[in-house]
Write a structure and sequence with these properties.
7-stranded mixed sheet; globular
Length: about 120
């Protein structure tokens, strides 16, 4: 059974930092890409950052220079370090792990709330 579980969300003041972690189980993690997405109230889910199997990263323009995505294949985790947080970063953050080689697979976590107060 595949499980993707996020942790680390919470309430922080503007300018502060949070670290989100995502633990995946039931998969061969090192053949999966990972990513973080977020969804604010009334908005569509949007990409925040992704990391490939080989460690190549990609960021939304709105978080470049502030957020860092990383992975630990030994622990089956994908993390998102968020610095210099802004109120507009407030959203539910979702972890995604996906495989783009056959057999294709795509798994989501349940989400974790991040609230940044001004």
């Amino acid at each position: 059974q595949v499980q993707v579980v996020e942790s680390g969300g919470g309430l922080v003041q503007a300018g502060g930092s949070l670290r989100l972690s995502c633990a995946a189980s039931g998969i061969t993690f090192n053949v999966y890409a990972g990513g973080w997405y977020r969804q604010a109230p009334g908005a569509q889910r949007e990409l925040v950052a992704t990391i490939s199997r080989d460690g190549n990263t990609n960021y939304a323009d709105s978080v470049k220079g502030r957020f860092t995505i990383s992975r630990d294949n030994a622990k089956n985790t994908v993390s998102l370090q968020m610095n210099s947080l802004k109120p507009e970063d407030t959203a539910v953050y979702y972890c995604n792990v996906n495989r783009i080689t056959i057999p294709l697979r795509n798994y989501w976590g349940q989400g974790t709330q991040v609230t940044v107060s001004s």
